[in-house]
Amino acid sequence: MNTTTIAKRAPQLLPVQEADNQRRAKALIEEAIALAKQNGMATTTAGARILAATIHQGPTTALCQFAATGTLEQLQATAELWGSSVNEVPVRWWRALDLYLQQEALDGAA
Questions:
Q1: Is the dihedral angle over the CA atoms 20, 26, 30, 31 positive or is it negative?
Q2: Distance between CA 99 and CA 52 in Å, rounded?
Q3: How far apart (Å, rounded) are the C-alpha atoms in residues 5 and 19?
Q4: Element housing 99 (H / E)
Q5: How far is CA 80 from its chain centroid?
Q6: Angle in degrees, 0-180, between the axes of helices 74-83 and 62-69, rounded to the nearest 10
Q7: φ and ψ at 83, to 5 degrees?
């Protein structure tokens, strides 16, 4: 009979290193903006979703929904973005998300 307890077998979970996560998110955003710029865009969809996750105002908002699911309610997301402070993130990030949302509006109108 094996007497090893579950606690001894369970994997050890390490605490989340916020600084590492923040550095990685910043690097992903910068990469997405740089990559998109090469193609004449403001940011990639993946970059826009990370930006939305960074800027959103709560779990029931359009930017949060976009960040989590990829489903974009463009008008609500734009209103939320414009209601946020430009000082919360680097201006180029705010502008990249704004331009992405504008392009989505144009693509939807076509």
A1: positive
A2: 13
A3: 34
A4: helix 91-109
A5: 14
A6: 120
A7: -85, -10
With tokens 């990685």, the residue in question is 24
Determine the Cα–Cα distance for residues 65 and 67; give it in Å rounded to an integer.
5
Closest CA to 89 of 55, 58, 52, 49: 55
Identify the CA nearest to 52 among candidates 27, 37, 73: 73
Residue-wise pLDDT for 30-59, tens only, equals 998 888 888 888 888 888 999 999 888 889
Rounded to two decimals, what is the model's pTM? 0.74
Distance CA 5, CA 94 (A): 51
- With contact defined as beta carbons under 8 Å apart, do 7 and 64 qualify? no
**Are 45 and 70 contacting, i.e. CB atoms less than 8 angstroms apart?**
yes
- Round to whole Å and give the CA distance between 70 and 56: 14
